[in-house]
Structure prediction request, 192 residues.
Amino acid sequence: VMSIDAERKVETDEDKAKNDLLDLYESMKVGRILSDTVQGVELTNNDAVAVLYHGSYKILIPFAEFMPPPSDYRNRPPRDVHHYLINKRLGGEVDYIVKGIDSNAYVAVASRTEAMRAKRKKYYFGTDRNGYNILYQGVVAEARVTATARNGLFADIFGLEVFINVRELSYQRLSDTGLYFQPGQRILVKIL
Prediction:
């Protein structure tokens, strides 16, 4: 490709694929946290798997690496409950760390729980350059909506997935949070 300037500014498809692969390898080697949106759910023989895309690479996150299992399955098969829980997060942005790559098949396997653990360590126990805690009681922070329910929503606040009741979301009486909030949306929360 001949460039107008001294350096080429336009990326070819090959350049994009190479950069995506480098992102994945960097995440796998040094634990860099990547973020993408949940695009789908695949069912295997035993469980459900979250599907994300990083450029042309398909990222698979098994349920055990996607979120902690529920304490009560309410007499339902675990595979169905896992499928439902991932399905509620479709369109939501999640963080992950790559655990393995098959560059020939354009597929990678990742862990969301490890990325959440790394974020918790950095933000809840870390300090700024003045020695003060990064997060503390009373600070207003940005959170990502990961799932909605009729009576509230789940938000990712720097590696913690927290349920926020509908009464805490608005001074108005909301009938269904799914009408006002969607997975992937950003909201402001106050750390109590």
